[in-house]
Amino acid sequence: xxxxxxxxxxxxxxxxxxxxxxxxxxxxxxxxxxxxxxxxxxxxxxxxxxxxxxxxxxxxxxxxxxxxxxxxxxxxxxxxxxxxxxx
Length: 87
Fold this sequence. Notes:
Elements: H1 2-26, H2 33-39, E1 40-42, E2 48-55, E3 62-68, H3 71-86
Antiparallel strand pairs: 1-2, 2-3
């Protein structure tokens, strides 16, 4: 009898934990790597410009976050920005 109660109690805890995890991640957006590439655009000069993900509500444009010589430098700066926003 006791083992049956213990088993249902631990299953209930596991389900509750899983439910909380699902609720936490439900509001977050998942950004795959290919989404970041759209924020980095190649200019006519051959340089790469990094734009913000969100559009300005008033102007409808994205903010310029910097111009870089290589795409890899722009991608690295994007990662630095995301780290700074979350830490």
